[in-house]
Amino acid sequence: MAVHSKLQHVTDRIIERSEGPRAAYLSRMRAATNKGPSRAHLSCSGQAHAYAGAGPDQQKLATESNGNLGIVTAYNDMLSAHQPFERFPQILREAARSVGGTAQVAGGVPAMCDGVTQGEAGMELSLFSRDVIAMAAGVALSHNVFDAAVFLGVCDKIVPGLVIGAQTFGHLPAVFVPAGPMTSGLANDEKAKVRQQFAAGEVGRDKLMAAEMAAYHGPGTCTFYGTANTNQMLMEFMGLHLPGSSFVTPNTDIRDALTAECARRALSLSALGNNYTPVCDILDEKAFVNGMVGLMATGGSTNLLIHLVAMARAGGIVLTPDDFSDISDLVPLLARVYPNGLADVNHFHAAGGLGFLIGELLGGGLLHPDTKTVAGEGLEHYTQEPVLKGGELTWRPGTKESLNTKIVSPLSEPFQKTGGLKRLKGSLGTGVIKVSAVAPEYHVIEAPARVFHDQDEVKAAFKAGEFTGDVIVVVRFQGPKANGMPELHSLTPMLANLQAKGHKVALVTDGRMSGASGKVPAAIHVCPEALDGGPIAYVRDGDMLRLDATTGTLDILSEGVMERDPATADLTESHYGTGRDLFAPFRAAVGAAEDGAAVFGW
């Protein structure tokens, strides 16, 4: 089926807008390709240093010209999603040897867990960790001894950072290697209920701890559809994962087989063979449009509205909020995964998952079918699912029907006619709201403001019983320049409690919310941020505000607000301690949230 005319229009304007920076980027990548295999240019001493620790592969590296695979890993065993990566380098080495190649761990990148730092000082490093990861990936590959690379990462900032780093070495093929979700534990809605009970003082910390441990109980990605699992979806829609591999659980035979195939596939795409496919050719304008379609169709994390812009910039592609807005208006919501529904990602995968959704969207002309991918030419590969047959990995056609229409819906019967994310614009600035999990009766909130400069102030006001009616909670000086733009997800249980009492409640902030947030309407990523003197800096307690997710507006209703002096804040406490001292250059250089909160330019 032909690509929908409106989707093609968005794509064409991105191509036109990006012409200059994209051409310059591709020119650099072609020049790097023309230099030939990097190892050939190293001195004998340099090569000896590079191969000295390669054990049984040392002689082959020194005397043969077969492909050498660089492994960039975000392994640590504090993140459940990344703990399975401990075993992956050996699987990848053995797979590379099986096709005559070699593999070396090129380097590691940091990986932090937003679930651990939520509501803590460390969260103010979280967004900037994306740029540190990109830089660390660049350092890992800077030795220039690799013909292809695989990237081991899953969670919130890690995949976007690795994509940025991979594009810096865009002349190399790149395959992204997932670890898969943990098996299902305590249902996410039950976990959320206990959190709300604890916030209301109805249960003690022992009940809360028991619920959390039952939910987060083993290796693998958290099973709700937050930023980590949205990242995995994007890697399939954009052609960087093997088809159907995102949501296969860890430590299973098929997971290991997929990991091994990643090594073989990456080496097969190198310039040493006949199927050269560098990552710069995969991540083109169409691939990013496909990623935005996937984001809207699945009701993914709002964090990707920032990350996709920054990821695209790394390849010379310019995305704007209007691109996301227009795609959201065009693409219907086809998935209900917590917090947008009761199912987790394991249920989603079993119901047909990404393969079914990609098939539906392709059939409706809502994806570009002709993109390059690590699986070959064309996104149709991603309607298939991997299976083990006689111990060998193969792919077969995926289901063409939803196996649970409460979780994944056909295009003919969407859960809602537009995407799960909505752009907001008005006299309070621009922002975004995730509407896929917000009940329709809460799509319009008009209420007086209560203004805070810190999320701890909000929690103190809640505990003091100060919220007694309809309210729009404004938390400002949370933007990237102010304090690194932390997520404010720890406010969700108390705001949900107020909503449950019958109050109309919303959050407005220049900060972020977790990809797991949903049921309380939240206008986030508000630009300009308060530190830049945006309208949010002029609001005071009692000012009437209106958040309208139906019309996409965010307005100050009170008169004379912009005639005041803007508020200021002492941010000293947010600039020191828990590593924040080291990030002053990032706060000074970072751009606006709607521009990807990017530290790097073109």
From TrEMBL:
This protein's UniProt keywords: 4Fe-4S, Carbohydrate metabolism, Gluconate utilization, Iron, Iron-sulfur, Lyase, Metal-binding
Keyword Iron among record annotations: yes
Assigned EC number: 4.2.1.12
Pathway field: Carbohydrate metabolism; Entner-Doudoroff pathway
Enzymatic reactions: 6-phospho-D-gluconate = 2-dehydro-3-deoxy-6-phospho-D-gluconate + H2O
Cofactor note as given: Binds 1 [4Fe-4S] cluster.
Requisite cofactors: [4Fe-4S] cluster
InterPro entries per record: 6-phosphgluc_deHydtase, Dihydro-acid_dehy_C, DiOHA_6PGluconate_deHydtase_CS, ILV_EDD_C, ILV_EDD_N, IlvD/EDD_N
Domain Dihydroxy-acid/6-phosphogluconate dehydratase C-terminal: 406-597
GO molecular function terms attached to this record: phosphogluconate dehydratase activity
One Pfam family, short name: ILV_EDD_C
Enzyme's top EC category: lyase
Segments forming domain Dihydroxy-acid/6-phosphogluconate dehydratase N-terminal: 68-380
Ligand binding ([4Fe-4S] cluster): 155, 222
PANTHER family per the UniProt record, alphabetical: D-XYLONATE DEHYDRATASE, PHOSPHOGLUCONATE DEHYDRATASE
Function: Catalyzes the dehydration of 6-phospho-D-gluconate to 2-dehydro-3-deoxy-6-phospho-D-gluconate.
Recorded family membership: Belongs to the IlvD/Edd family.
Protein name: Phosphogluconate dehydratase
Native species: Sulfitobacter sediminis
Lineage: Bacteria, Pseudomonadati, Pseudomonadota, Alphaproteobacteria, Rhodobacterales
